[in-house]
Amino acid sequence: TQGQVITCKAAVAYEPNKPLVIEDVQVAPPQAGEVRIKILFTALCHTDAYTWSGKDPEGLFPCILGHEAAGIVESVGEGVTEVQPGDHVIPCYQAECRECKFCKSGKTNLCGKVRTATGAGVMMNDRKSRFSINGKPIYHFMGTSTFSQYTVVHDVSVAKIDPQAPLDKVCLLGCGVPTGLGAVWNTAKVEPGAIVAIFGLGTVGLAVAEGAKSAGASRIIGVDIDSKKFDNFGVTEFVNPKDYDKPIQQVLVDLTDGGVDYSFECIGNVSVMRAALECCHKGWGTSVIIGVAASGQEISTRPFQLVTGRVWKGTAFGGFKSRSQVPWLVEKYMKKEIKIDEYITHNLTLGDINKAFDLMHEGGCLRCVLKM
Ligand code: NAD
Ligand code: AHE
Ligand code: ZN
């Protein structure tokens, strides 16, 4: 198949919120600096639903969504040296070129090399898509487009992993689990004894709980409007805002003698982001925004909250350098130092993808893994 167009199945989003359609899609060969991957398993993340909803200012249609997956390199374009056909890989929506201003800064995991292209749904080389249906282009998404049996990504967006690792599990290391763990370890740098509050107990929020437990937090307070119990990730107390008349920030301040040391917003709701900042302790409390909010939404608070020492931060992919650290996270999973299996509540096939999105909106679903 090397050098040839591959026709395969992919889930195409034609319009916001209209059911995805399983189509025969043509996938062009990788050009210079590109890698064509046979995707074996992909999970769904809330961000896929967000872009599908039409609320993402970068959302383009028709497109192939998906960014939490694992597969095997099928072929590589000219000049690609770090991976070869047969390598087991995880596509990384957050690239790492190791050469740009961002990568060399030592201050961020963001990479500037391909970001304008991935945001525009095309590849860097010719600003065109490698996906088409009968000659009509279909946009890429987040530089990954994993809801396809084959995808083409930039070489700076591929993490080569241990071939022994189970791809139906480690696909989750493409987004949600690293995001939560890294928000605690890299962005907030939670220390032993700290009091932590987590808003939203989906996969990202529960991975924050897991990270906070491993960092030695003394109390891990989970806040969710859905009182489902996920008690084996580290949450020590559960709070449902619906059980109280007073604002949730006040509830947390009262529960913690003045506020928490660290809070994490894992929902994408700007009023919850405000509550997450305002439940932090005066003088030092730090709040980390992880959730992705809809186009047009803005955060607000009284500046006095910051003047009096609270800190507002955000994180993308938990601050992890993708190509360097995803393989390390795979090894941590292989050594049973981090969980993955526990986040997988459902397994379906690509053909059931619309059902998988329905499940996401029902209680009791964390990650659903699709076999391609
Ligand atoms: P999810 O849908 O599985 O979980 C969200 C949880 O929030 C659910 O349990 C839901 O019941 C709860 N919730 C909703 N409204 C609430 C409210 N008002 N108060 C309290 N709880 C509420 O989502 P996920 O896949 O875990 O992703 C979480 C968020 O993180 C999304 O916005 C996603 O787009 C974003 N995300 C960001 C990054 C990043 O790098 N910054 C990476 C992955 C995901
Ligand atoms: N296009 C969106 C941006 C969404 C966003 O913030 N994405 C996160 C990853 S979410 C993964 O589930 C991210 O990494 N952001 C940094 C970046 O460079 O995109 C919007 O709202 O415009
Ligand atoms: Zn995601």
From TrEMBL:
The keyword rRNA-binding does not apply. It is found in: Cytoplasm. Its main location: cytoplasm. Its EC number is 1.1.1.284. Its cofactor is Zn(2+). InterPro entries: ADH-like_C (IPR013149), ADH-like_N (IPR013154), ADH_3 (IPR014183), ADH_Zn_CS (IPR002328), GroES-like_sf (IPR011032), NAD(P)-bd_dom_sf (IPR036291). GO terms for biological process: formaldehyde catabolic process. Residues 32-161 form the Alcohol dehydrogenase-like N-terminal domain. It comes from the Eukaryota. GO terms for molecular function: alcohol dehydrogenase (NAD+) activity; S-(hydroxymethyl)glutathione dehydrogenase (NAD+) activity; S-(hydroxymethyl)glutathione dehydrogenase (NADP+) activity; zinc ion binding. Homodimer. Belongs to the zinc-containing alcohol dehydrogenase family. Class-III subfamily. This is S-(hydroxymethyl)glutathione dehydrogenase.
